[in-house]
Structures are given as C-alpha cells and as structure tokens.
Amino acid sequence: KVNESVASLQKVLLSETTSILKHVKYGAGTEFSIQREEIVLLKKLVEMIISLHIIGMENEMKKQEQILVDVEIDCEGLISVFVKPIITRFRYHFSGKKKTNRVDKPQWFIQYFLEAIKAHIAPVSDCIQPSALKACGNSKMKVLVDLRSAMIRSLIQNCIHWRLEKSYATLENSHALFCHTIDQLIAADQELENVYEYAAYVNKPAVWPRLISFFCTTDARMKRWVEADASFARRKVNEVLAESGAWDGFIPESCFDIVNLLKKVSARFKDRLSPEFAFRFVTGIQLPVIEAYRIAVEQSLINVATHVRHDPMLHQQEILGFCKGINALSHLRSVMVEWAQESPFSLIQDWKAKSERSIRSRLSADIDEEGGVFSKEVDIIDTVVTTCIKRLGDMSAEMFRNGMQQILTRAEVTEGSALFPESFLNETAATLELYKNNLFPQVADSIAKEFANGIVKAVSDFVSTRKLSEKIILILREEMHKVYNLFQPFSKSPENRFFRELRDVL
Questions:
Q1: What is the reported pLDDT for 99?
Q2: What does the DSSP assignment read for 313-339?
Q3: How many whole angstroms separate alpha carbon 290 and alpha carbon 332?
Q4: 417: CB partners within 8 A, 6+ apart
Q5: Is the predicted pLDDT of residue 412 greater than 60, yes or no?
Q6: What value does the CA radius of gyration of the chain take, rounded to a whole number of Å?
Q7: Cα 465 from chain centroid?
Q8: How far is CA 48 from CA 20, 133, 141, 325, in A?
C-alpha cells in the first residue's frame, strides 16, 4: 500500500511539473522564460518527487529485509518530464522528408542536440539538482542523484541513438560517411565531458552511454566501424609513402607521419571504449598499419642495398638509405614498447591476458613479452634490425679483410715500415663515422662490435693459415693498435672491449 500511494502521488506531482514546464514553453525551442515563482514551485515539486522515491526504495528494502546501503536513484521518470518536449522537437526536425534530415550532414543533428542541452540544462543543474540533493539528505541511506547527467543520458539515447538507428543502413554502405559521422560524434562526446563533466562509463555503455556507444551495441556495428577506419588508414599510409620527402631525415618523415596516424587511431578508443572493443582497433587497424610501413621500409630502403657485399664507402647512397630504414624501424619499435606500458594498451593487454587465462586456464606465452599487444611486430622488427646490423658489420669486415690480405701479402714489408697505409685506415675510420653519424648510438655501437668481430676473425684466420715471420707478426701487432684506436668513438678502451681475443692471437 505504501508503494501504491507513493506511485500515485508521484504521478500527480509529475503531472503538475509537466504543466509548469509547458506553461513556460520549456523545450519548445531555444528560448523560454521561467519566473521566480515557477522556479520555487518546481523546486518543491522535485523535492517531493525525490522524497517519495526514497520512501518507496526504503520500504522495498525493509520488505525484502535488505540492509540500507548506498544507492543511486533511478530518476528516469522525473527526467522524462524535462526531456520529452526536447525529444519531440528533435525528432520533428530530423525525421521523414524534412530538409534538415540529411544523412550526409550528421553535424546538423549533433549541433542541434548540443544547443538544446546548452539552452535547457541550466534549470536542471542549477535549480532542480539542489532540491533533489536536499531530499536525499533526509534519507538514512547515502542516496546519489545526478539529474544533469541523467538528462544528457536520456537525450543521447532518445535523440542521437534514435537518429543513428534510422540512418544506419545508409551509413554502413559508405566508409567516408561512416568515418565522418564518427568524427562528429567523438567531438561532441568530448564537449559533453569538458563542458558538462558528463562521465560516461567505459565498461557500462548501456547504462551511461556516449554518443559513440551506438556503434558498440552490436558486433556487426563494431566490425563496420573498424572496417571503415581501416579503409581510411590504408589510404593515409599510401599517401604518406607517396610523399616526395617520405624518406628524408635521420628518422624518415614518413615514420613520424605513421606514428601520428597511429595516435589518431588510439584517440578513437582511448577512454571511450572497453578494452575488448579497443583491442579490435589494435588488431584491425594499428598492427596492419605498422606491418604495411615496415614492409615499405624494407622494400624502399633496406632491400635496395642487398647487392652491396663489401666496400660500403663505395655505395654511400645505398648505405645511407639502409641506415634510415634501421632508424625508422628502431623509432617505431621504441614507440610501441613505450605505448604498451601505458593506458589504454596496458589495459588491453590485461584484458587479453585474462581472456586467454579463462580459455586455457594458464597465462598466454606472449603476455610478458616486450611490446605487449604490439609484441608480434616488435619481435619482427627486432629480427629485421638484428639482421641489418649483422649485414653492415659483415660488409665492413669484408672490406677490411680484402684490404688487409692485399697489404699483408706484399713482399716489400720491412721492419719499421707502416704496414697499413693511411688510405686504408682512413677508409676504415670513414666507415665507422658513417655509421656513428647516421644511426642511433645503440645501433651504431652494435655494428661497431660486429665490425670488430669480423676484423678479429679476419686477422686470426690470416695468421693461422699463413706462415708469417716473427718480424711481420711483430709489425702486425703494432699496426693493429692503429686499428684499435679507430674504434675509440665507441669505447674508451676498444682494445679491451672489442679486440681482447686478437691480443692473444698476436
């Protein structure tokens, strides 16, 4: 009986509230006038409606012998009184054959929605909300009520999502229109958050939706969204690679463009979608973009130097391109590793790990791998870069081996003579400088180490396979110090770091 009485009284009070709003033309347009007396009456009505709602809640809990706990009031009935006239006008303008009802102009209905909120939210947040909080303060429970957010939520569901439902059949047949609509919705979502502090719940889009949540309600819509964005991303990658200066710079300009594209994709889902949905953007867009760029780098910069077997200084243009390719992949790798440790990618990886545990009852093999959700591409890039480092090291060592053999087989080697000509040492130094100036320090250091290992092997092989006199061995030992010194840019003591084994041989 208590609940029946509460419902009956609420119905009367809501009817009275509706009459006042109709009288002041609330929701009839962007302009309405409300007098002080009407505001006072609205406040009293709202306080009584919320108080009755709390009485009904407390009575229901007592009936079920539940402990009084913190609870959020379902104020949909009260809010519907405020939003109904706004919804009616919205649907009038954006349905049927109205000139304003254009699928290709989503910004029109979104702008109307934002302006309607701006024009009508003040009475709710400034006048009605305090009365609702006053009623909540009289309860034994800690009652939560947010009429402003409830109003925005209702308008999102009954205006924006209703409109998208009507036009979805057309949207899904055009990637360009789909992406344009998504852009407009995301911008509006951001405005709601910045201006009205509307905090939609990422993991509860059905309860506290965003405008963009419409596309997350079914698997087919989510899939279509990812396909549309992926189509745009592919076109953008092709545009980036077609730029005349795509491969200019220590780190190629195209690499920064690709990273910016990946950031834009992240902005589509960061703090907006659950990890489950966000994961689709990673696998469906970001990883394919990274793969496409990696392949382009290999084909345009790295593979063009495959014919260079030795004498890198004779093929500087190819080697410089080779270095740019390594720099591009190294930079992209560092970005992926850094992002993997931060939100949203760390949250996506956690979700992925939990999903795999539930399926296999154990941790996935790649959960702890460097790069997180990007680990596959990180591993591939590691393999490519490692191969490139070895190629440059071997190429340089082959240059040294060929030059050394020519020098050491000369019959005119005499005691006190300079075994390695200045030109030979200069070429070796120039090769090292080429790597140092055009590669990341860590990569250049790794190549220097490979180069040094090749020198150690070349000298060791030559000494072990030839019958060299003690005189030539002594000269070679002294001359090698000149070679050691060339590696000082990479180590204060290159003889100990790079050539320790060679000291034993000589």
A1: 92
A2: GGGHHHHHHHHHHHHHHHHHHHHHHHH
A3: 8
A4: 475
A5: no
A6: 36
A7: 57
A8: 15, 11, 17, 71
- Are the C-beta atoms of 312 and 434 separated by less than 8 Å? yes
Go through 305-316 and write b for each residue having 16 or more CB atoms within 10 A of its CB, e for each that does not: beebebebeebe
Q: Which residue has the tokens 């490979």?
A: 450
128 touches 43 (CB < 8 A)? yes
Tell me the pLDDT band of 411, cut-offs 50, 70 and 90. Answer: very low
Q: What does the chain come to in residues?
A: 506
Q: How far apart (Å, rounded) are the C-alpha atoms in residues 87 and 157? A: 10
Question: Does residue 48 have a pLDDT over 60?
Answer: yes
CA angle 97, 99, 102 (to 5 degrees): 85
What distance in Å separates the CA atoms of residue 313 and residue 52, rounded to the nearest whole number?
87
Q: What is 253-291 written as a DSSP string?
A: HHHHHHHHHHHHHHHHHTTTS-HHHHHHHIIIIIHHHHH
Residue whose tokens read 């594209």: 261
Reading the block at residue 379, the tokens are: 């591993």
Please check whether residue 491 is in contact with residue 497, taking contact to mean a CB–CB distance below 8 angstroms. Answer: yes
CA-CA distance, 50 to 122, in Å (whole number)? 19
Angstrom distance (rounded) from CA 215 to CA 221: 5
Residue 17: predicted pLDDT: 85
Q: How crowded is residue 506: how many other Cβ atoms within 10 Å of its Cβ?
A: 14
Residue among 470, 333, 472, 310 at smallest CA distance from 398: 310
How far apart, in whole angstroms, are the C-alpha atoms of residue 245 and residue 291?
21
Between 76-93 and 106-122, two packed helices, what is the crossing angle to 10 degrees? 140
**Cα three-residue angle 165-169-171, rounded to 5 degrees:** 90
Average pLDDT value over all residues in the chain: 87
pLDDT at 468 over 80: no
